[in-house]
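Work Package 4 report. The design task specified in the project plan requires that, given a folded chain encoded as structure tokens, an amino acid be chosen for each position. We show below one input record used in the internal validation round.
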């Protein structure tokens, strides 16, 4: 049977033409997106990765341990007690409370994105998340426990025994495996896809005109000299009160105020702290290591005075706050 090509040729031509038109439209669109991304690739802030490669079973185990009150001496406090994930990874208190209603001496930092931080705690005394876990579990004012007690409790849980045996067949439930599971879970707590990150990836309309202006001013005033990188901070130490005596103004100096000095014993490290991450900062008040500042507006104003030696105009403060609010990302369940 002969096929009448005169019937299908117009359709073929139409398909080919459509394909050419589509490809001609797609190429400029692709280039436009690439150009938009390239436009911001040299910015001081970089987007949080959209995915993280971690063992799902270990993350799930770590999540359960993170929420398990049996890690505390009297079975009343879990990691999540001071770091509720639904609240930006902080409890919103100036100072958190541990076992027996004891109050801590320093503001609780967020656990979100902590896997991106170059050190843990305000004074940087723990270089890794694994080492950080030793602190709250053993601090008498926080969870007040020890590894012998913790392991004894967890080994009475048949579910934990099976899960640890599967993940760590040679060690089972042990100090290092508990720390590994919790730290792996904490590394999963990234908050990608914030409006600002989407903006950096080429979505020009992801943030408001005010937030864009705020970002320009954030850089122009010098805020990004300390708050930069993927975590927008948390990658260096700085003295609180570079241009003005913060502690002299505030008064009532405590041991916690000595910051890095408490770790190194070096005099010049007094009043020096890890620069906090500004990721999700709109959710993590009150602010500063002493939890003395309630609002972002006030925090920006005070930081400008004490760290930059500048007075920022009211409108500029509002613009910078709008930018900071655009740093709130998405925490996957």
């Amino acid at each position: 049977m002969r096929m009448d090509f005169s019937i299908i040729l117009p359709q073929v031509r139409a398909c080919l033409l459509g394909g050419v038109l589509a490809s001609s439209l797609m190429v400029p669109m692709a280039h436009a997106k690439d150009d938009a991304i390239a436009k911001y690739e040299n910015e001081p802030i970089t987007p949080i990765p959209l995915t993280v490669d971690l063992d799902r079973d270990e993350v799930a185990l770590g999540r359960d341990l993170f929420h398990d009150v049996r890690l505390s001496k009297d079975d009343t406090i879990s990691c999540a007690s001071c770091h509720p994930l639904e609240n930006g990874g902080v409890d919103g208190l100036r100072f958190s409370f541990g076992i027996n209603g004891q109050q801590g001496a320093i503001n609780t930092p967020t656990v979100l994105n902590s896997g991106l931080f170059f050190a843990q705690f305000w004074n940087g005394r723990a270089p890794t998340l694994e080492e950080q876990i030793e602190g709250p579990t053993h601090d008498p004012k926080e969870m007040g426990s020890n590894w012998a007690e913790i392991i004894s409790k967890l080994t009475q849980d048949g579910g934990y025994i099976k899960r640890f045996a599967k993940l760590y067949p040679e060690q089972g439930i042990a100090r290092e495996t508990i720390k590994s599971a919790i730290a792996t879970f904490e590394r999963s707590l990234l908050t990608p896809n914030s409006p600002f990150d989407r903006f950096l990836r080429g979505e020009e309309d992801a943030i408001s005109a005010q937030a864009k202006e705020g970002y320009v001013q954030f850089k122009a005033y010098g805020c990004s000299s300390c708050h930069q990188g993927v975590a927008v901070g948390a990658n260096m130490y700085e003295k609180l009160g570079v241009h003005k005596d913060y502690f002299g103004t505030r008064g009532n100096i405590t041991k916690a105020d000595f910051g890095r000095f408490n770790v190194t014993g070096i005099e010049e490290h007094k009043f020096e702290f890890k620069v906090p991450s500004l990721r999700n900062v709109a959710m993590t008040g009150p602010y500063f290591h002493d939890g003395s500042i309630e609002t972002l507006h006030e925090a920006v104003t005070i930081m400008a005075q004490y760290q930059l030696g500048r007075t920022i105009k009211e409108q500029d403060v509002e613009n910078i706050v709008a930018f900071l609010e655009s740093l709130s990302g998405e925490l996957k369940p």
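Residues 5-39 form the longest helix (35 residues). Validation will be extended to a larger panel in the next phase.
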